[in-house]
User: Which sequence fits this backbone?
């Protein structure tokens, strides 16, 4: 039998398991009928008919190609099964459509332990663990810190955190799969346990609102960045590019966070996480 793609194998398996006697004409069934002599096209060309003997031949062909017997075995759900689970049922693990690593996130704990599936791990400074968030157990006194930028996350052990956050778990915000996994995790946590660590700029404030964090980390002395190296460590161009977000932030910020918005407005400034780390800036926790 011709080598079939994953979706085609599933269609053949469905025909055999459901004992269908006919299916609508398509390139797949036309090829099986014409090239393999299995099945028979209807007179009007709209259908392909399969007898019991035809289905037995298809079953044998699928078993030979994949090691899977449609009449005996159960194929895991292609949308939710992992490649390992699929490999236990069929010799083509790529039949699993679920993305590899779809629930995994990069986590770091510079000064504490990370409890994963009941086991406590020490994560060396500068290192991270790539784990399934559903297996992570936060201790009662552990907050989750969302770190916006990857360069900052990889150097998070250098951050100057408030004492209450020394043992907090840091998670990289990520892109695509990681970003979706993070959204799923955040839905299981109360906002008060989640802290946002973003660039100190309008986009960072907007991200705090989008992710629903209960607090954010900001530079304790932002004016330092206006003074050092002739102001080279703050980015006025980034602030200008984020004007629209800056205006929308004004309408939602709470009383405690409003001074942050006003400082940005007054100085037209943006301070990156990387600049804060390099300057060894002490970070301050602001509740939203």
Assistant:
């Amino acid at each position: 039998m011709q080598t079939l793609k994953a979706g085609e194998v599933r269609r053949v398996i469905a025909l055999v398991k459901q004992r269908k006697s006919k299916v609508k004409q398509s390139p797949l069934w036309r090829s099986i009928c014409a090239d393999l002599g299995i099945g028979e096209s209807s007179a009007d060309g709209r259908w392909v008919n399969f007898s019991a003997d035809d289905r037995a031949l298809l079953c044998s062909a699928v078993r030979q190609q994949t090691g899977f017997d449609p009449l005996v075995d159960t194929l895991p759900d292609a949308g939710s099964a992992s490649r390992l689970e699929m490999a236990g049922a069929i010799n083509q693990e790529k039949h699993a459509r679920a993305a590899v690593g779809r629930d995994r996130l990069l986590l770091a704990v510079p000064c504490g332990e990370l409890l994963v599936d009941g086991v406590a791990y020490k994560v060396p400074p500068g290192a991270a663990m790539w784990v399934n968030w559903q297996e992570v157990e936060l201790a009662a006194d552990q907050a989750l810190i969302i770190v916006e930028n990857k360069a900052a996350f990889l150097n998070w052990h250098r951050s100057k955190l408030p004492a209450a956050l020394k043992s907090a778990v840091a998670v990289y915000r990520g892109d695509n799969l990681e970003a979706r996994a993070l959204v799923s995790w955040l839905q299981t946590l109360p906002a008060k346990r989640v802290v946002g660590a973003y660039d100190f700029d309008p986009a960072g404030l907007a991200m705090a609102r989008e992710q629903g964090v209960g607090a954010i980390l900001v530079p304790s002395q932002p004016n330092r960045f206006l003074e050092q190296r002739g102001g080279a460590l703050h980015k006025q161009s980034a602030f200008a590019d984020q004007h629209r977000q800056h205006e929308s932030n004004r309408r939602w910020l709470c009383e405690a966070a409003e001074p942050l918005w006003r400082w940005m407005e007054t100085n037209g400034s943006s301070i990156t996480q990387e600049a804060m780390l390099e300057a060894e800036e002490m970070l301050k926790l602001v509740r939203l």
